Amino acid sequence: MLMGNCLLLFLWCLIDKSFVSPLHSSSQSRMGKEQYRNMLAHRKHGMMGVHRVKRGWVWNQFFVLEEYMGSDPQYVGKLHSDLDKGNSMVKYTLSGEGVGSIFTIEPSTGDIHALRSLDREEKPYYTLRAQAVDVLTGRPLEPESEFIIKVQDINDNEPRFLEGPYSASIPEMSPVGSYVTQITATDADDPTYGNSARIVYSILHGQPYFSVDPKTGIIRVALPNMDREVKEMYQVVIQAKDMGGQLGGLAGTTTINITLRDVNDNPPRFSKSIFHLRILETSPVGSSVGRVKAHDLDSGKNAEVEYSIVPGDGGSMFDIYSNKNTHEGTVILKKCLDYETRKAYTFKVEASNAVLDHRFLHLGPFKDTATVKVNVLDVEEPPVFSRLSYSMETYEDTPVGIIVGAVTAEDLDVGNSPVRYSVEWRKDSENHFDIDPVEGTLSVIEALDRERHTEHNVTVVATKVNNPLLSSKVTVTIKVLDVNEFPPELAFVYETFVCENAKVGQVIVLCVCVCVFHAKNFAFRCVPKFKQFDGLMGSISDNTAGVVTRRGVFRRLEQSMYLVPVVVEDGGYPLQSSTGMVSVRVCTCNTDGSLLSCNAEAVIFPMGLSTGALMAIMLCIVILLVMAVLYTGLRKHKKKDTLMSSKEDIRDNVIHYDDEGGGEEDTQAFDIGTLRNPKGIKETAQLQKIRPEDEPNRASACMSNEDSEDIRAYIHHCLLENSSPPYDSLVTYAYEGEGSVAESLSSIESWVLEPKEDYRNLCDWGPRFKTLAGIFKEHECKDMEKTEN
After folding, report:
1. Would you state the pLDDT for residue 531?
2. How far apart, in Å, are the Cα atoms of 629 and each of 619, 622, 623, 624, 635?
3. Which residues contact 577 (CB under 8 A, 6 or more apart)?
4. Hey, which bits of 175-295 come out as E strands?
5. Residue 598 DSSP SS3
6. Where in the cell is the protein located (predicted)?
7. Rounded distance, CA 466 to CA 420, Å?
8. Residue 201 burial (10 A CB sphere; 0-12, 13-18, 19+)
9. pLDDT at residue number 182
10. Quick one: DSSP state of residue 774?
């Protein structure tokens, strides 16, 4: 760069000596001639007139070299006027941009110098004003003139890439000459002066793959069949040089990263030709069997692989799912497997690209196939029924023990274990059937009733003998068939009337039949001996018929009422029938059939109350009255008629005693029959009260074995009587009260004993009353001591 600047400085000096000085000489001569003419004109016209003085010096512009490196101020140019005679009487002044700081002028000579180095890229030119002034008077000799000092450019700036480094991409396999990108370098030097800003592009690194246009900077593909799978990224270095690329020009470089975009030019390929997979035979439908994968060297959507099963023998049992994220094919189970039926499956899987590029189809088929072998693993399974569900039928009158049907299950495993059957009990309503554990036959164990349950659902369990933990279930639906056991009946008690002037074949009433058997076809008929009326079978619907007249004239005075027997038969097997009565009264009617008069009951009939209805109402009233009378009478005798309370009627084998008395040997104090039946009070003899004067007789009675035998016989006789309660335990003796002949045995309700009573006879009652006798004897002694004191 220093040599270039020195060369330019040398050229400038030559130009300055050959052009600048002559310019000044000619300018001075021109200025002198003009001044001379002006002086002549001045003398000719005299001093009286004021005339315009024509400017005597002219210049265009000055040039100063940029980046001046000399030690002395750089000479720019010289100002000179024709009025300057060289006697130092003319003074030159300078004003404008940079005067004093950048530019200076010698007042006496008019020489202009640049005080410092200038940069054209910073400011290309400066505008200044110059004037010639008389030294003595200070008056301007000529008008002020404006001129330009232009900074002369030198090649001091290299080309630059302002947007680098660059990135670009092109499809792989692009042909030669394909456009890649365009780059542009800028040079800060003056493009109008010389070749400083003339740029030429060249490629430094990236050949032979790419090329660059030297003038435009367009980068193109230079090598055919560039494969992304071989090399995806290329780095290209471009140089921009000014001075037209000549020696001494300045240069700048930049980097372009070029990426090859993927195209679908590679088909998918399986890594191996055979894939071995395994699955348990008990795996449910939809389970994953395994995965296969075909590799595609492309990327993105071009690498997406679609898997499919080639139609064949084993392919119907499986399906395959393509995973776009992992590019794998997952084999899933489509149907249930059975090891005993088939142990292995073989089929082919095809892998193909989802998106094809027709420019590369000539390279070959874009798909690949592989063989998949699936081995089924044996698992011990529960027994298998011959059907998914069973349906059976039986009549509701089927006797207990009759076989309804049978189920069958078998072990399909290699061991072929025996099977045992059982019924799963879940509800009471399903306990009507039992199953043979070996044969699997279902039989009735309880009477059936179709009116309660029309069908029964029985769950049968089949269990392997070798492995009881393995079992299977099946539902058996047993439909109960109806047996025609209920005859059809008329829905209502029909009562109607017939006009005396009725016509033959006139329908007087419609009868509706109901049947538990749900029969559809009923037969209605009248008793053959009844000539006046007839029944029309099915005249209205399946269960409806009309009673019609057989003759046209009826006389109310001869017979006011007819009872028409109607026989109803169903279509079941065995045939069931019933006979109902239809009451028909004879009434007087108008010609149009409206009722005029009838007997009293017939008059009430149109109002909605028939004879049967009135009788029913009267019967209900009588029943209510009888019930009221009975209820009143029962309330009066409720206490005396009660045998025992509901709380005591526990009917168990525990004997409940609520009485107190003389003990087990005291059997004459009360009558056991009286306690069991209070109504027997009148039939039982009055017992004698125990008094001191009767002590010998009572003691002998208590100790009499004869009386004890009589009491035992009496109790035994009462227990065998039909009137005794049908209990399987002894009666609870809890009755006592005012109506009892034996009086109360309770210490709470006992009568107050007379003070003169003697309890010494208690010693004669036996060892059980010895303690009680001692207590009374001790009290008697204390009373005697008190009396003596």
Report:
1. 52
2. 16, 11, 10, 9, 10
3. 487, 488, 567, 568, 569, 570
4. 179-182, 200-205, 210-212, 218-221, 233-241, 251-261, 269-270, 274-280, 288-295
5. coil
6. Cell junction, Adherens junction; Cell membrane
7. 10
8. buried
9. 94
10. H
CB 352 within 8 Å of CB 361: no
Predicted model pTM: 0.42
* Pairing status of strand 471-481 against strand 389-395: parallel
Whether the Cβ atoms of residue 673 and residue 714 lie closer than 8 Å to each other:
yes
Residues 6+ apart with CB under 8 A from 553: 500, 501, 502
Count Cα neighbours of 171 within 13 Å in the Cβ-side half-sphere. 10
Contact by Cβ (8 Å): 522, 570:
yes
Through-space distance between the first and last CA atoms of the chain, rounded to whole angstroms: 168
CA distance 134 to 121: 39
The size of the chain, in residues, is 789
Residue that is written with structure tokens 């009477």 in the block: 447
CA-closest candidate to residue 568, choices 495, 511, 609 = 511
Measured CA to CA, the distance from residue 157 to residue 121 in angstroms comes to: 9
Task: Quote the tokens at residue 495.
Answer: 């009562």
In the chain, helix, strand, coil percent, each to 5? 20, 30, 45
CA 45 centroid distance within chain: 121
| Residue 410, helix vs strand vs coil | strand
DSSP 627-691: HHHHHHHHHHTHHHH--S-TTT---SS---B---SS-TT--SSS-HHHHH-GGGGTTSPPPPPP-
| Rounded (10°) CA dihedral 156, 159, 160, 164 | -160
CB atoms within 10 A of CB 41: 11
DSSP tag of 358: G
What is the three-class DSSP state of 64? strand
Q: What does the block give as tokens for 347? A: 């089929």
pLDDT in tens, 668-698: 555 555 455 444 444 444 434 434 444 444 4
The DSSP symbol for 140 reads B
Q: What pLDDT is recorded for position 527? A: 56
Q: What percent of the chain has pLDDT over 70?
A: 69
Cα separation, 279 vs 290, whole angstroms: 9
- Output the CA–CA distances (angstroms, integers) from residue 415 to 99, 336, 380, 411, 735, in the order listed: 120, 21, 9, 8, 77
Pairing of the two strands 269-270 and 251-261: unpaired
CB contact at 8 A, 435 and 401: no
The per-residue pLDDT for 430 is: 60
Q: 547: closest CA among 559, 561, 537?
A: 537
Judged by DSSP in three states, 507 sits in strand
Q: CA angle, 325 as apex, 324 and 330 as ends, to 5°?
A: 65
Structure tokens given for 470: 């393995």
Q: CA–CA separation, 379 vs 392, rounded Å?
A: 33
Whether cis (ω within 30° of 0) applies to the bond prior to 143 is: no
Closest CA to 529 of 550, 544, 508, 514: 550
List the chain residues with pLDDT less than 70: 1-60, 427-430, 511, 513-542, 573, 599-611, 637-708, 718-763, 766, 768, 781-782, 785-786, 788-789
Q: What is the CA radius of gyration of the chain?
A: 71
Give one DSSP letter per residue of 454-474, joined into a string.
Answer: SEEEEEEEEEESS-TT-EEEE
- What H or E segment, with its residue span, contains residue 561? strand 561-569
CB 60 within 8 A of CB 150: no
3-state DSSP assignment of residue 148: strand
Q: The tokens 């035994």 sit on which residue?
A: 716
Sign of CA dihedral 432, 436, 442, 443: negative
Reduced to 3 states (helix: H, G, I; strand: E, B; else coil), residue 205 is strand
DSSP-assigned states of every residue in 12-54: HHHHIIIIIHHHHHHHHHHHHHHHHHHHHHHHHH-SSS--PPP
Please report, as a single letter, which amino acid is at residue 8. L
pLDDT at 288: 94
Amino acid at residue number 308: S
